[in-house]
Design brief:
The protein is built from 2 helices and no strands. The longest helix is centred in the middle third of the chain and has 46 residues.
Length: 69
């Protein structure tokens, strides 16, 4: 590790470290938020999948076709 004899160099290093930490934390929070939103979207898709595509009873469709003939 380098030793800094100049106090302004030490303050500039500390200042730079303190200035960049909010940006790094923000990037991590945005990444986690994006993953969370993606997971919420996948879960909601699974919940509403049954409502979007109703189950069709094939035997009833065949009876309707027979009645139409």
């Amino acid at each position: 590790m380098k030793k800094y004899h100049n106090p302004t160099a030490l303050f500039s290093i500390l200042g730079l470290s303190l200035a960049t930490s909010p940006f790094i934390i923000t990037i991590l929070i945005l990444k986690l938020l994006g993953e969370w939103l993606k997971n919420c979207g996948e879960v909601s898709e699974e919940i509403f999948r049954a409502e979007q595509l109703p189950l069709l009873n094939i035997t009833q469709l065949e009876k309707v076709k027979e009645l139409d003939n």
